[in-house]
Fold these 2 entries.
Entry 1:
Amino acid sequence: MEPKLFIDGAWVDAAQGGTLDVINPATERPFAAIAAGSATDIDRAVAAAKRAGKGPWGRTTGRERAALLRAIAAGIEAEKDRLARLEVEDNGKPLAEAEGDIADTIYCFNLYATYAEELDARQGEPIAVPDARFSTRVKYVPAGVAGLIVPWNYPLLMAAWKVAPAIAAGCTLVLKPSEYTPLSALELARICHEAGVPPGVVNVVTGLGRDAGAPLAAHPDVSKLAFTGSVPTGIAVATAAAQDVKSLSLELGGKSPIVVFADADLDQVVEWVMFGIFWNQGQVCSATSRLIAERSIAPRLVERLAEEARKIVIGDGMTEGVQLGPLVSRAQYDKVLGYMEVGKREATLVTGGGRPAGFNAGYFVEPTIFTDVPADARIWKEEIFGPILSVAAFDSENHALDLANTTEFGLAAAVMTKDIERAERVADRFEAGVVWINCSQPNFLEPPWGGMKKSGVGRELGTWGLMNFLEPKQITAYQSSEPWGWYLKNTQNG
Ligand code: NAD
């Protein structure tokens, strides 16, 4: 793949001509290069998107856009094996997980095709108002040029969560993928083009966050920003958006709790806790990285989890049977190893705690569990975004909820118990946008996704994700033959 940007339906060099290496995290070796986009490239891409929005694209029906979305889904389907391998090379995750991401991506485009069709039926829907002399309707118009900025943990899928609803809504867009995992976004641009998406509707500008992401967030012709990433970058993006009062959705970090009561099925608990923290190397925004276990079962549960963690097969994501690949980058590797050292000072290390033996290259770390973690420990409070589980014990339901909710984040929370009334009670009291009962992490694309507190603003997925890219327009008509009266009454007859 040439190091090019995709702007206005064509592959172009970055204005400043630079490139950035793309590193395979399992080998630490560069295997591709991308164009280093800058503010000039963002200007070109936004201008192309603005032009395209004012052309025939702006008059397409939902049904027409649905056909394109289905063609994109079919294009991804036709290349799904290659795309999955590309995600592994870029991100490091095990191939089976990457295959799951691609399947979800295909589902996402097909789902938004259905929503695009349903949108046609909702155009002009009447709204009852308490005055029969008026009729009121709502039309949904595209929000304009959308700036989409995504992270590296699910490269293609995170892009799809934004690109699919943006197209469904009739927006045009500029996508800025993470500099660590940019390749599948470029493939998506090509697939969109081959599917018949008109030039300028989908543009992809690769590059560093500060060089390409920041100018996109600050661009005055971008009317809608959809960002997924860390809290500090989210704050920078929101600050930039505020200057032009742009519409904004933020999907940010988390430090999600899983509360386990003594009556829960221990085998099920082990399964979901392991999945909740070690899936995707723990690089999951909603990872249940804080286990809050009822004191009577905490030691036995921790023992079982440690036994399982030691069995996890670590290696290159392309190797059959591997369950834990490398972390995405040197920076992430250094950060996670740093937290392991912090944890050794703050709490009791149960298993893991460093680099696994026998690896000469690659950003590999051990699945790690700390127990007796105090509530003021950094490993309890801060998002690590790696395979580190922190465990604390609780004595009562209120104590568990206090531990669960005392956090600046509010993305997800899970509870495990056989007592369904208690599960519902705890679910209601969790301060989180996503709650799981007797499971952790299953994610469907129809319900809303997003967080409270510092975990974000707004919701993605489902029809909530579509509304992010639409402006509802109220149209109110006076339909009575009687004079309205206020002007005449007050000025002439009054
Ligand atoms: P990040 O904030 O470092 O980067 C995200 C994106 O923003 C990248 O494309 C980056 O290049 C760009 N960027 C960096 N600086 C920028 C700036 N000043 N202006 C505009 N764009 C800029 O995050 P990351 O390390 O790529 O991803 C990990 C984070 O993402 C974690 O905190 C994780 O919880 C979060 N995340 C959240 C969700 C969710 O749905 N809530 C999903 C996935 C990841």
Entry 2:
Amino acid sequence: MTANTSNPGIPRRTQVVIVGGGPAGLLLGQLLHRSGIEAVLLERRSRAYVLGRIRAGVLESGSVSILREAGVGDRLDQEGIPHDGCFLSFANKGFRVDFAGLAGRSVTVYGQTEITADLYAARSRSGATTVHGVEDVTLGDIDTASPHVSFVTESREHRIDCDIVAGCDGFHGVSRKSIPLDSMTQFERVYPFGWLGVLSETPPVSDELVYANHERGFALCSMRNPQLSRYYIQVGLAERLEDWPDARFWDELRRRIPAAAAAELVTGDSIEKSIAPLRSFVAEPMSWGRLFLAGDAAHIVPPTGAKGLNLAIADVRYLHEAIVGFFTGDPTVLDTYSDTALSRVWNAVRFSWWMTNTLHRYPDQTEFDQRMQETELAYLSGSTSAQRVLAENYTGLPL
Ligand code: APR
Ligand code: PHB
């Protein structure tokens, strides 16, 4: 590392610059550190801000293995809750899909916020450079063998030269936008509804997640731990948070979930409430020159299949292998990164789209569409083969 005389903490040169300190950027930094590769991580926000974001919390078994291999599995193993199945419901009647029995794998419920906290703690221990509060991040010469990243922090301009730039800066970041539009194809579906989510310090209504199709709209019962529940209901895109006091939320949730669960539901004050739109998005390819995209920077899935975080983890696993190859004399793996990651991405995009279509009410849904949805769910409830397809995809296709 060559020291930067104007700010000794920020080097002028490193091997990899990681843009974005969400789960994708942090995990990549951790894996690279363990492989002896130097990476500087640039994050627009403060650490406290990143750790305050409430995101999903279902990990595929492959994601759990990767986090363990990265050396951040201890708390996950202690506090993560293994789930061997989940419930689906329609018309207030639920049925269980047995992940362990049908796919031989389970999932683990452990909040993304906790993973991010574990990764930041590991990064601090590693002594690797992390710069928070960066502004005006610009990627330069990424189509050459000598890329660089410029940014401003504490009113000073900096430039870091590197071999590789990892774009892990989420959907709204600068990395994807640095690829010329004529070198990239973008695929998008914006769904005509959102999810209103509530976090509450109440015991979860069920030991396993409940995904509910209902004529009033989709609902999901999830959790973070035995005292912390996470619930969602489908709402129209024009809905405003101020029109959803807690009592109205609980009433609506109760109407949409299986009758047995509604009878058991423990309600309380919400400690977080937000509305998120649903979108599917893929940018192809996931690399350009020496820039490699990972996670939400390259793709977005609706949360219905719980795939967003898992895809980010899988991308990072592939990208880490490719970068190690590059620095150990096999640069060809970098060329295949995009295709390898995208084949997994498209499977998860398809699965999340199918879950979303099967469980949500569309504004223009006809009686025919309605029957198709109900017939699909009825078939699923009675067919082990159909449930196996769901179990295999939900718990994660092999990496
Ligand atoms: N410079 C530096 N950092 C940036 C910039 C920028 N120009 N733009 C955005 N960032 C930061 C954001 O502040 C954020 O912390 O990049 C980070 C991106 O993190 P996420 O949005 O969490 O994306 P990712 O790490 O790919 O995580 C995958 O899985 O469950 C899903 O969407 C969920 O966040 C989740 C994702
Ligand atoms: C969550 O717990 O926040 C969660 C769980 C499953 C999903 C989406 C979100 O499919």
